[in-house]
Design a protein that fits this description.
By secondary structure, this protein is an alpha+beta fold. It contains two helices and six strands. Helix content is 15%, strand content 43%. It has a six-stranded mixed sheet.
């Protein structure tokens, strides 16, 4: 698996963004393609919530007028960012 981003959660869990997932970013209407912003969202989130799917967690960060939502699946090692996009504050 080719990786475009490698970071860690505040607890030190390794998280990667696969190239395959990142390649789909331009297809998403509310996509976030800034790798530095994605990295900060995982490393220093403003908020975290469980995802609807077991084994996943939502990481939120508000920066520069953008609220980023990154969903991380923890089942594989390392954990994988499965999607990332800008999120309305009400979600």
């Amino acid at each position: 698996m080719k990786v475009v981003l490698r970071t860690r959660t505040p607890e030190g869990i390794e998280v990667v963004l696969p190239a395959l997932v990142y390649a789909k970013v331009p297809e998403e209407p509310r996509a976030v393609g800034d790798l530095d912003l994605i990295e900060r969202t995982i490393r220093e989130p403003d908020e975290r919530r469980p995802d609807r799917r077991p084994g996943r967690e939502r990481f939120f960060r508000h920066e520069g007028g953008v609220r980023v939502l990154a969903v991380v699946e923890f089942a594989p090692v390392p954990a994988i960012i499965v999607t990332v996009f800008s999120s309305d504050p009400d979600h």
